[in-house]
Amino acid sequence: xxxxxxxxxxxxxxxxxxxxxxxxxxxxxxxxxxxxxxxxxxxxxxxxxxxxxxxxxxxxxxxxxxxxxxxxxxxxxxxxxxxxxxxxxxxxxxxxxxxxxxxxxxxxxxxxxxxxxxxxxxxxxxxxxxxxxxxxxxxxxxxxxxxxxxxxxxxxxxxxxxxxxxxxxxxxxxxxxxxxxxxxxxxxxxxxxxxxxxxxxxxxxxxxxxxxxxxxxxxxxxxxxxxxxxxxxxxxxxxxxxxxxxxxxxxxxxxxxxxxxxxxxxxxxxxxxxxxxxxxxxxxxxxxxxxxxxxxxxxxxxxxxxxxxxxxxxxxxxxxxxxxxxxxxxxxxxxxxxxxxxxxxxxxxxxxxxxxxxxxxxxxxxxxxxxxxxxxxxxxxxxxxxxxxxxxxxx
Length: 395
Fold this sequence. Notes:
Blueprint: H1 2-15, H2 17-45, E1 57-65, E2 71-74, H3 81-88, E3 92-107, E4 110-119, H4 123-126, E5 131-133, E6 145-149, H5 150-157, E7 171-176, E8 179-189, E9 202-205, E10 224-229, H6 235-240, H7 243-249, H8 251-259, E11 270-276, H9 297-326, H10 330-338, H11 343-373, E12 374-375, E13 392-393
Parallel strand pairs: 4-9, 6-8
Antiparallel strand pairs: 1-2, 1-10, 1-11, 3-4, 3-7, 3-10, 5-8, 6-9, 7-8, 12-13
Helix pairs in contact: 1-11, 2-9, 2-11
């Protein structure tokens, strides 16, 4: 019986070829546009959510209230802040500074520009950036050590077929102000997904900050600090006791704000905060110079609404054409009723035709535009991490 319904549906669609093509193409375009928009929205909302330790990871930032009542926020800390914070609060399990800059890397006579970070090796235990070669707890213990991405190992050192251990012991140089600094490769990390705010092609020990200062200068330095709290610990426990620490660590900056008459005279005009890693990419008010730019979630809502509106219009168009076409099939319906067809049988026939059209539209969407225009993303440190590998639309 089902085979008969399907056969009649295909014959009907073939007989009304113009109607079929218009309906299939229109619905397919609507579904494709909606799917592509939702992929972009999902990509933005998936930022920094793939880390295994994500619920315990936080970024530090400083906030202050200006004289006019507006709030200022920035995630820039002094170079010594990370160690001070780690030693001050027992709730901190791991911590790392993070500062980046584009540098010319030289290996085997070839020079190319890449994003280099200065960090503590705790970063590889905090974030889900697995090492393909090397020991996460032993890398970057020396000033002259470097950890590179798999993509950099392939393009810069010619490593092939995943033989990442061949990169260990190789030398990569950085020249600053006519002084050459040589670094030994001690690890290779998996390419960082494109939906990560933290990006890097190579990493050095933060002990290089004095001689290879990658960040800008702001009351003694400009460094982002990430911390991992011990399980079941909350940031509120730290912030409750953070008053004296804030006064001591940000004293120079607070004095500078007061001298510039930018600090309010309220009882609590400034403060130190911890921000969850999963909220970082949608926090546009906090200035962060080294991570990927934050994304205003309002745009995701707008794009999502546009995608659903396009799909709704395509469905309305589909239903309108179907109703219009059904008026010309009154004779067919009459003949079927005379021959004993029941109402439910007629409904199954027309539902079957609609299902065939929707299936054809979905097939055209997947096999056609999406497959032709969907390619992997390779941004900065790359993008190869399972479901976190999103992709880019290309023309």
